[in-house]
Amino acid sequence: MAINGTVAGRGLLEFFDSSLEALRDTDGLILDLRKAGGGNTGVVEGIIGRLIDRERVYQRTMPHNGKPFLSRVRPRGEWQYERPLVVLVNRWTGSAGEGLAISLDALDRATVVGTKMAGLEGSVLTMRMPQTGIAFQCTKQKVFNGTLTGDPAAQEFTGSSRSAYTPPVLVDPNTEALNESEDPILEKGLEVLGRATSP
To answer: String of b and e for 55-86 (b: at least 16 CB within 10 Å)?
Structure first.
């Protein structure tokens, strides 16, 4: 299943839900986020909610002015997809796409396969210079994707900023071993999924 463009809008969640219904009985799933950039938290949470079995912390936000806070996501829908999941990423995976991939990894819900991503922090604020009209962007807060780990009585947030994250299955499309493949990231993803679904 591929998500192209922004991770936003009710239409995307409807597409995800209907696709998941069609793939409900598969042994495993590949979620392709190589063209997913931008988007919003609600849709990211909606997607994660179909893939987890209980409420989880998935993000820590540190505003430039204010106290850090944790964000939680809950299961959504009448059923959740619980079989092995591989997420494909590359340099074009940005912002909300990155947050989705890192969160699924941190929640032990998916294996992320691909290259380093765009490294775009979340909560981007666009402003315009009053005299020239030139637009520029800056982040209004730092976002870490991860979850609570450790002893249940004293759990701590463990996660990664989007700029620091490296996929656990890193693919270099320029290596000699892979240069004959038309899509080395997909090929590696299929290999990882095959191992996860084999008896």
So the answer is: ebbbbbbeeeeeeeeeeebebbeeebbeebbb
The DSSP symbol for 140 reads: S
Mean pLDDT on 111-123: 86
In this prediction, residue 37 carries a pLDDT of 81
Angstrom distance (rounded) from CA 119 to CA 98: 8
C-alpha 149/C-alpha 13 separation (Å) is 29
Rounded CA separation 94/100 (Å): 10
Give dist(CA 12, CA 89) in Å, integer.
Answer: 18
Taking only the tens place, the pLDDT of each residue in 17-26 is 999 999 999 9
User: Quick one: tokens of 184?
Assistant: 């080395």
Amino acid at position 139, single letter: T
Q: How many CA atoms lie within 13 A of 172 on its CB side?
A: 4
Model confidence over 87-102: pLDDT tens digits?
999 999 988 999 999 9
